[in-house]
Amino acid sequence: MALTDDAHRLIKQHLTTHEQPRALAVDATCGQGADTEFLLDLGFNTVLAFDVQAKAIELTRQRVQSLGAPNSERAKLIHDGHQNLENYLSQHNNQRMAQCIMFNLGYLPTANKNQTTKADTTIIALNAAIQNLSANGIISVMCYPGHPAGAIEKQTVTKWLTELNEDWQTELHEGAAPKPTAPVLYLIYRC
Ligand code: SAH
After folding, report:
1. Per-residue b/e over 132-152, b at no fewer than 16 CB within 10 Å?
2. pLDDT tens digits for 35-73?
3. For atom 25 of ligand 1, which residue has the closest CA?
4. Cα 51 to ligand 1 centroid, rounded to whole Å
5. For residue 100, how far is its CA from the centre of ligand 1 (angstroms)?
6. Is 106 in the pocket of ligand 1 (CB under 6 A)?
7. Looking at the domain covering 52-165, what would its CATH class be?
8. What per-residue confidence (pLDDT) applies to 172?
9. For 32, what's the count of Cα atoms within 13 Å in the CB-facing half-sphere?
Protein backbone atom coordinates (compact mmCIF):
# COMPACT_ATOMS: atom_id res chain seq x y z
CA MET A 1 0.00 0.00 0.00
CA ALA A 2 1.32 3.45 -0.91
CA LEU A 3 2.13 5.90 1.89
CA THR A 4 -0.41 8.32 0.41
CA ASP A 5 -3.07 5.64 1.04
CA ASP A 6 -1.78 5.27 4.60
CA ALA A 7 -2.18 9.03 5.01
CA HIS A 8 -5.83 8.79 3.92
CA ARG A 9 -6.55 5.84 6.19
CA LEU A 10 -4.86 7.37 9.25
CA ILE A 11 -6.47 10.80 8.79
CA LYS A 12 -9.92 9.26 8.45
CA GLN A 13 -9.36 7.13 11.53
CA HIS A 14 -8.11 10.10 13.57
CA LEU A 15 -10.99 12.40 12.62
CA THR A 16 -13.51 9.67 13.38
CA THR A 17 -11.97 8.67 16.73
CA HIS A 18 -11.82 12.28 17.90
CA GLU A 19 -15.27 13.09 16.52
CA GLN A 20 -13.93 16.11 14.72
CA PRO A 21 -16.39 18.40 12.96
CA ARG A 22 -15.69 18.44 9.23
CA ALA A 23 -15.86 22.19 8.69
CA LEU A 24 -12.61 23.23 7.03
CA ALA A 25 -9.74 21.30 5.46
CA VAL A 26 -6.74 22.38 3.41
CA ASP A 27 -4.96 20.61 0.58
CA ALA A 28 -1.75 22.65 0.56
CA THR A 29 -0.42 21.12 -2.70
CA CYS A 30 -3.35 19.96 -4.80
CA GLY A 31 -1.41 18.66 -7.84
CA GLN A 32 -3.82 16.32 -9.60
CA GLY A 33 -6.46 16.75 -6.91
CA ALA A 34 -6.36 13.33 -5.21
CA ASP A 35 -6.20 14.76 -1.68
CA THR A 36 -8.82 17.41 -2.48
CA GLU A 37 -11.16 14.63 -3.61
CA PHE A 38 -10.36 12.62 -0.48
CA LEU A 39 -11.17 15.60 1.77
CA LEU A 40 -14.46 16.21 -0.08
CA ASP A 41 -15.28 12.52 0.31
CA LEU A 42 -14.71 12.86 4.05
CA GLY A 43 -17.52 15.42 4.03
CA PHE A 44 -15.66 18.66 4.73
CA ASN A 45 -17.87 21.71 4.21
CA THR A 46 -15.00 23.69 2.74
CA VAL A 47 -11.78 22.40 1.21
CA LEU A 48 -9.17 25.01 0.32
CA ALA A 49 -6.88 23.62 -2.39
CA PHE A 50 -3.63 25.45 -3.17
CA ASP A 51 -1.19 25.12 -6.03
CA VAL A 52 1.24 27.49 -7.72
CA GLN A 53 0.81 25.81 -11.12
CA ALA A 54 -2.11 26.64 -13.39
CA LYS A 55 -1.91 23.09 -14.76
CA ALA A 56 -2.46 21.60 -11.29
CA ILE A 57 -5.38 23.93 -10.58
CA GLU A 58 -6.94 22.91 -13.91
CA LEU A 59 -6.43 19.18 -13.24
CA THR A 60 -7.97 19.56 -9.79
CA ARG A 61 -10.86 21.62 -11.20
CA GLN A 62 -11.65 18.84 -13.68
CA ARG A 63 -11.45 16.19 -10.99
CA VAL A 64 -13.68 18.10 -8.62
CA GLN A 65 -16.19 18.91 -11.37
CA SER A 66 -16.46 15.23 -12.21
CA LEU A 67 -17.80 14.71 -8.67
CA GLY A 68 -20.77 16.93 -9.55
CA ALA A 69 -22.56 19.52 -7.43
CA PRO A 70 -22.90 20.00 -4.49
CA ASN A 71 -19.54 18.27 -3.86
CA SER A 72 -17.69 20.43 -6.36
CA GLU A 73 -18.97 23.63 -4.73
CA ARG A 74 -17.30 22.77 -1.44
CA ALA A 75 -13.82 22.99 -3.01
CA LYS A 76 -12.19 26.43 -3.28
CA LEU A 77 -9.26 26.25 -5.68
CA ILE A 78 -6.55 28.79 -4.99
CA HIS A 79 -3.85 29.50 -7.57
CA ASP A 80 -1.30 30.73 -5.05
CA GLY A 81 1.46 29.40 -2.81
CA HIS A 82 0.62 27.70 0.48
CA GLN A 83 2.97 30.14 2.22
CA ASN A 84 0.06 32.59 1.86
CA LEU A 85 -2.35 30.25 3.65
CA GLU A 86 -3.12 32.76 6.42
CA ASN A 87 -4.58 35.27 3.94
CA TYR A 88 -7.15 32.77 2.71
CA LEU A 89 -8.00 31.26 6.08
CA SER A 90 -8.93 34.68 7.37
CA GLN A 91 -11.47 34.97 4.53
CA HIS A 92 -13.20 31.95 6.07
CA ASN A 93 -13.39 33.67 9.41
CA ASN A 94 -16.45 31.89 10.71
CA GLN A 95 -14.59 28.56 10.55
CA ARG A 96 -11.05 29.79 10.87
CA MET A 97 -9.55 26.68 12.37
CA ALA A 98 -8.99 23.73 10.06
CA GLN A 99 -9.44 20.15 11.25
CA CYS A 100 -7.10 18.70 8.61
CA ILE A 101 -4.24 20.16 6.55
CA MET A 102 -2.44 17.98 3.99
CA PHE A 103 0.92 18.54 2.29
CA ASN A 104 2.05 16.28 -0.54
CA LEU A 105 5.42 17.84 -1.26
CA GLY A 106 7.71 17.55 -4.27
CA TYR A 107 6.78 18.05 -7.90
CA LEU A 108 3.87 16.97 -10.02
CA PRO A 109 5.19 13.88 -11.86
CA THR A 110 3.43 14.88 -15.13
CA ALA A 111 4.66 18.51 -15.15
CA ASN A 112 7.81 20.60 -14.88
CA LYS A 113 10.01 19.01 -12.20
CA ASN A 114 11.46 22.43 -11.34
CA GLN A 115 8.08 23.46 -9.97
CA THR A 116 8.79 21.62 -6.76
CA THR A 117 7.89 22.72 -3.26
CA LYS A 118 10.81 24.35 -1.49
CA ALA A 119 12.00 24.06 2.09
CA ASP A 120 11.71 27.75 3.00
CA THR A 121 8.14 28.26 1.77
CA THR A 122 7.11 24.83 3.10
CA ILE A 123 8.23 25.88 6.59
CA ILE A 124 6.30 29.16 6.35
CA ALA A 125 3.21 27.13 5.39
CA LEU A 126 3.75 24.56 8.16
CA ASN A 127 4.01 27.35 10.72
CA ALA A 128 0.75 28.82 9.41
CA ALA A 129 -0.78 25.33 9.52
CA ILE A 130 -0.03 24.76 13.20
CA GLN A 131 -1.36 28.25 14.04
CA ASN A 132 -4.65 27.43 12.35
CA LEU A 133 -5.28 23.82 13.29
CA SER A 134 -8.16 23.07 15.64
CA ALA A 135 -7.68 21.09 18.85
CA ASN A 136 -7.40 17.40 17.89
CA GLY A 137 -6.77 18.39 14.28
CA ILE A 138 -4.27 16.57 12.08
CA ILE A 139 -1.60 17.62 9.57
CA SER A 140 -0.01 15.22 7.08
CA VAL A 141 3.26 15.85 5.28
CA MET A 142 4.50 13.54 2.50
CA CYS A 143 8.22 14.17 1.81
CA TYR A 144 10.09 12.94 -1.25
CA PRO A 145 13.85 13.00 -0.57
CA GLY A 146 14.69 11.20 -3.83
CA HIS A 147 15.48 14.47 -5.66
CA PRO A 148 17.93 17.16 -4.46
CA ALA A 149 15.41 19.83 -3.42
CA GLY A 150 13.31 17.12 -1.77
CA ALA A 151 16.26 15.85 0.26
CA ILE A 152 16.91 19.35 1.63
CA GLU A 153 13.20 19.79 2.24
CA LYS A 154 12.89 16.52 4.18
CA GLN A 155 15.89 17.46 6.33
CA THR A 156 14.39 20.89 7.03
CA VAL A 157 10.94 19.50 7.83
CA THR A 158 12.45 16.84 10.13
CA LYS A 159 14.36 19.49 12.06
CA TRP A 160 11.26 21.72 12.28
CA LEU A 161 9.30 18.79 13.74
CA THR A 162 11.87 18.25 16.50
CA GLU A 163 11.46 21.89 17.51
CA LEU A 164 7.70 21.70 18.07
CA ASN A 165 6.65 22.09 21.71
CA GLU A 166 4.74 19.58 23.84
CA ASP A 167 1.37 20.69 22.43
CA TRP A 168 2.24 18.59 19.41
CA GLN A 169 2.67 14.90 18.81
CA THR A 170 4.38 13.67 15.66
CA GLU A 171 4.62 10.29 13.95
CA LEU A 172 6.88 9.03 11.19
CA HIS A 173 5.57 6.44 8.74
CA GLU A 174 7.87 4.77 6.25
CA GLY A 175 7.23 2.43 3.35
CA ALA A 176 8.00 -1.30 3.33
CA ALA A 177 11.62 -0.74 2.26
CA PRO A 178 12.91 2.35 4.10
CA LYS A 179 16.04 3.97 2.66
CA PRO A 180 17.32 7.57 2.69
CA THR A 181 15.81 8.36 -0.71
CA ALA A 182 12.39 6.76 -0.10
CA PRO A 183 9.29 8.88 0.59
CA VAL A 184 8.18 9.34 4.20
CA LEU A 185 4.93 10.44 5.78
CA TYR A 186 4.81 12.64 8.85
CA LEU A 187 1.63 13.06 10.85
CA ILE A 188 1.30 15.94 13.28
CA TYR A 189 -1.42 15.99 15.92
CA ARG A 190 -2.46 18.81 18.19
CA CYS A 191 -2.80 17.29 21.64
N1 SAH B 1 5.27 14.21 -5.22
C2 SAH B 1 3.87 13.86 -5.38
C3 SAH B 1 3.06 14.94 -6.01
C4 SAH B 1 3.31 16.27 -5.36
S5 SAH B 1 2.53 17.46 -6.24
C6 SAH B 1 3.77 12.56 -6.18
O7 SAH B 1 4.80 12.05 -6.60
O8 SAH B 1 2.65 12.11 -6.40
C9 SAH B 1 3.18 18.89 -5.47
C10 SAH B 1 2.48 20.10 -5.97
O11 SAH B 1 2.91 21.19 -5.19
C12 SAH B 1 2.79 20.45 -7.43
O13 SAH B 1 1.59 20.46 -8.16
C14 SAH B 1 3.41 21.86 -7.33
O15 SAH B 1 2.99 22.71 -8.38
C16 SAH B 1 2.87 22.33 -6.00
N17 SAH B 1 3.62 23.42 -5.38
C18 SAH B 1 4.93 23.74 -5.49
N19 SAH B 1 5.22 24.81 -4.72
C20 SAH B 1 4.06 25.16 -4.09
C21 SAH B 1 3.71 26.20 -3.18
N22 SAH B 1 4.62 27.06 -2.71
N23 SAH B 1 2.43 26.28 -2.77
C24 SAH B 1 1.49 25.40 -3.23
N25 SAH B 1 1.77 24.40 -4.11
C26 SAH B 1 3.03 24.29 -4.52
Report:
1. bbbeebbbbbbbbbeeebbbe
2. 999 999 999 999 999 999 999 999 999 999 999 999 999
3. 51
4. 7
5. 18
6. yes
7. alpha beta
8. 97
9. 7
